[in-house]
């Protein structure tokens, strides 16, 4: 028998993980339909799930990115010509939880889905509209698209198993720490606000299959995540611990609107009162013990892409200013041709080399706000009447709710680019960089009530 035979690995390190989507998730299926350009991946029941291959790929890449002192080939397997080995980590698919906190693994009847207060909402998932704005303030060619996403607040459950000859607590803990880390994202759009996961429950167990009693216990464990829940009942959840995020600097800004703000949905309202409305989205909320989930509707959405776009333009401004590259100078670049923008936000939309961004944003989906109808008309100065097509109404939001903006910046970014970004963030905090739509009409001014960098106060005064 080969030395790499599974029979030689008589120890099993097991974990059961429940994660919550802190932002919408877009694990694409590669398909589209009449309603959207990109559908999310669903299981045989038509419910969203996270493939184990996707989780494994993100964990492996994150561990390599964090430069963990682990033999990656030994842990994750490798293939080099005729030599190779399989992965010793087994990660299951992550299945969705119903309103009672039960895992939906295996076939679920249509009646059960329809009667569940939470699952019935997944028959129609949110669709996010996207448009890429150029330097002229208009949509770029092929820059208008939409995609289906999974509701923020959705919970999933998956299990991990490590085959080992002897327990490997150090390597095992680094795998778990990676999943618990701030920078752990899954699916598409992870640099545009999607894919943030938070571990809500973690149970773990180590078994020696050379022991008859522990072998019998391992044999009783079902591969079905719903049925295996009873197997884990007598194992207490692992207490949360602080994880050293060496590769990310974290900025936390608490923003409060100074007046009206508008992140447009691209549509009017059902009542016909306004031609332009703010985007809202449903969200899953869980009670204190996490055993009851419900859907709340019309939550305010501040898309990370809107924040990212505004910051990108302001970063280019500060970089050009520091290098005395003023208007009219052909060396004054914007977009991903600007060195600071490229270092922070990546490049690849204009051809040439492709580089992933080094800044991670998170969508804000939080609370409700009051609405205000504003009527607009553009007057023809010659006739004194309304210009054709220039009479419209919008319904922006207002209120005293505070919104938590979280931004992660890789420590690989050069100091000059980070300084440009921090100056742009200070502009947001001081109301000098409005966010969203209608900023030329006075919308989108925010004030910062609290700001931190890596948990320490962040100076926002200019």
Overall description:
The chain is of the alpha+beta class and 462 residues long. The chain is built from eight helices and 22 strands. The strands form seven sheets. Strands 1, 4, 5, 8 and 9 form a five-stranded antiparallel beta sheet that branches. A five-stranded antiparallel beta sheet has the order 14-20-10-21-22, with helices on one face. A hairpin with a 2-residue loop joins strand 21 and strand 22. It is globular, with a radius of gyration of 25 Å. The model has no long low-confidence stretch (mean pLDDT 90).
Structural class by sheet pairing and helices: alpha+beta
Content of β-strand: 25-35%
Mean of residue pLDDT values: 90
Tertiary shape: globular
- Strand and helix order: EHHEEEEHEEEHEHEEEEHHEEEEEEEHEE
Rg, Å, rounded: 25 Å
Tell me roughly what share of residues is in helical segments: 10-25%
Low-pLDDT residue intervals, each spanning 5 or more residues: none
Number of DSSP helical runs: 8
Question: Mind describing the biggest β-sheet?
Answer: 5 strands, antiparallel
The termini sit apart by 69 Å
| DSSP strand tally | 22
């Amino acid at each position: 028998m080969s030395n790499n035979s599974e029979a030689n690995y008589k120890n099993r390190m097991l974990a059961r993980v429940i994660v919550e989507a802190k932002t919408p998730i877009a694990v694409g299926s590669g398909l589209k339909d009449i309603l959207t350009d990109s559908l999310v991946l669903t299981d045989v029941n038509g419910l969203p799930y996270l493939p184990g291959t996707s989780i494994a790929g993100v964990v492996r890449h994150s561990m390599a990115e964090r430069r963990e002192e682990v033999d990656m080939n030994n842990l994750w397997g490798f293939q080099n010509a005729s030599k190779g080995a399989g992965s010793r980590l087994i990660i299951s698919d992550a299945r969705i939880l119903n309103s009672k906190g039960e895992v939906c693994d295996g076939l679920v009847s249509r009646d059960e889905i329809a009667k569940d207060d939470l699952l019935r909402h997944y028959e129609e998932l949110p669709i996010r509209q996207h448009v890429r704005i150029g330097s002229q303030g208009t949509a770029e060619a092929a820059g208008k698209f939409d995609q289906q996403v999974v509701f923020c607040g959705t919970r999933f459950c998956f299990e991990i198993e490590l085959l080992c000859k002897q327990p490997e607590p150090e390597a095992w803990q680094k795998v778990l720490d990676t999943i618990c880390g701030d920078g752990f994202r899954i699916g598409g759009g992870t640099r545009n606000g999607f894919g943030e996961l938070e571990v809500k429950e973690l149970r773990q167990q180590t078994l020696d299959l050379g022991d008859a009693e522990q072998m019998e216990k391992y044999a009783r464990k079902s591969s079905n995540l719903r049925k295996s829940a009873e197997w884990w009942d007598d194992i207490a959840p692992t207490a949360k611990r602080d994880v050293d995020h060496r590769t990310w600097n974290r900025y936390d800004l608490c923003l409060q609107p100074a007046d009206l703000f508008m992140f447009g949905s691209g549509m009017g309202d059902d009542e016909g009162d306004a031609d332009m409305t703010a985007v809202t989205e449903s969200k899953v909320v869980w009670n204190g013990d996490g055993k009851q989930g419900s859907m709340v509707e019309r939550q305010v959405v501040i898309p990370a892409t809107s924040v990212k776009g505004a910051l990108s333009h302001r970063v280019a401004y500060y970089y050009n200013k520091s290098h005395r590259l003023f208007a009219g100078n052909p060396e004054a670049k914007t977009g991903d041709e600007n060195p600071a923008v490229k270092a922070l936000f990546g490049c690849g939309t204009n051809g040439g080399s492709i580089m992933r961004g080094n800044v991670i944003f998170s969508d804000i989906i939080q609370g409700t706000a009051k609405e205000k109808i504003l009527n607009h008309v553009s007057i023809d100065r010659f006739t004194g009447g309304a210009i054709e097509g220039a009479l419209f109404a919008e319904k922006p939001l207002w209120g005293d709710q505070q919104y938590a903006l979280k931004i992660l910046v890789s420590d690989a970014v050069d100091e000059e680019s980070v300084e440009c970004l921090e100056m742009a963030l200070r502009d947001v905090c001081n109301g000098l960089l409005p966010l969203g739509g209608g900023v030329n009409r006075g919308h989108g001014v925010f004030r910062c009530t609290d700001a931190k960098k890596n948990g320490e106060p962040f100076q926002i005064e200019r």
